[in-house]
Amino acid sequence: xxxxxxxxxxxxxxxxxxxxxxxxxxxxxxxxxxxxxxxxxxxxxxxxxxxxxxxxxxxxxxxxxxxxxxxxxxxxxxxxxxxxxxxxxxxxxxxxxxxxxxxxxxxxxxxxxxxxxxxxxxxxxxxxxxxxxxxxxxxxxxxxxxxxxxxxxxxxxxxxxxxxxxxxxxxxxxxxxxxxxxxxxxxxxxxxxxxxxxxxxxxxxxxxxxxxxxxxxxxxxxxxxxxxxxxxxxxxxxxxxxxxxxxxxxxxxxxxxxxxxxxxxxxxxxxxxxxxxxxxxxxxxxxxxxxxxxxxxxxxxxxxxxxxxxxxxxxxxxxxxxxxxxxxxxxxxxxxxxxxxxxxxxxxxxxxxxxxxxxxxxxxxxxxxxxxxxxxxxxxxxxx
Length: 384
Ligand code: ADP
Ligand code: MG
Hints:
Rossmann fold; six-stranded mixed beta sheet; globular; binds adenosine-5'-diphosphate
């Protein structure tokens, strides 16, 4: 979707030049939530603004959807900014004398969408961000978090494929900020926009980013997933950053789950399932129906079915298992693991089994939380 190559921005004259962005290259895939992280002054905002040429690059190349953005004339550039890309700032302005609905519809007004459709889409967007009942309110009747939601609604209502977000949650207090992060993750899963999100907070970056680009003094010091950055910091600089991160609140079920040692299909024969179970020395197994968990079959009920000559697994099923979503934080997994014969199931929105988290895997991941040595965690994982 976005291909940036050796992007550069030098502010000021040659005598007093500031290299704000100094040869930055990255690609962003459609539907990705890409985070740019770095301390204040590292060039994040400058880089973000170069993507729609609010800041004119001093050098490099930029393609969006294959089109060369730096060669665009005024008309193309206007279309890019009005249709394709939307930007959300930390302190963006709501019009105080317009209702929340009119504020949410504002972005479309600029884009020339007819009024009836504007208001309809605004209502949908407000509903989506959890403000469905506040359309008639005025901004000063909303809390800070709610106002930020209106900003998000405004961007969603426009249908822009790319959202550029410059520290949109930085002014919010921690609890509301967490809610907004959850909201953004849920929206992202549903709506699949491409999002470039800027933050100076590594915890936030790790929580949100499919990938994170860490910047320092206008340059990229590391680009990778949260797990990459936690386990293989590219330099002492990144390692220092990472040491402040509470992994149990950053890593998610999907980052530590693994394939189940075995599963059974709903049409399998209890005798075969029991034999396979004994081969792996386990006491129970997930039985799947079309990828979804139909239930768990325990060895005793399988043995009983075999003894009675029954051939359907359906009668052997219990609901003795726990399940969670791929984005659940490790800290929230603790109360779910270890209660049942089978490991914790990780399922996606359709209820399909994506992987499992055995108790020992979780304990290993949590105890590794204090070390950053990748060899250590690999060794520990091998023992599970
Ligand atoms: P960040 O968003 O990471 O805090 P910025 O992109 O705002 O970083 O700034 C990067 C560097 O460029 C800083 O040294 C900043 O002072 C400088 N800078 C930013 N905008 C301008 C400008 N309009 N004119 C001159 N220097 C600027
Ligand atoms: Mg900034």
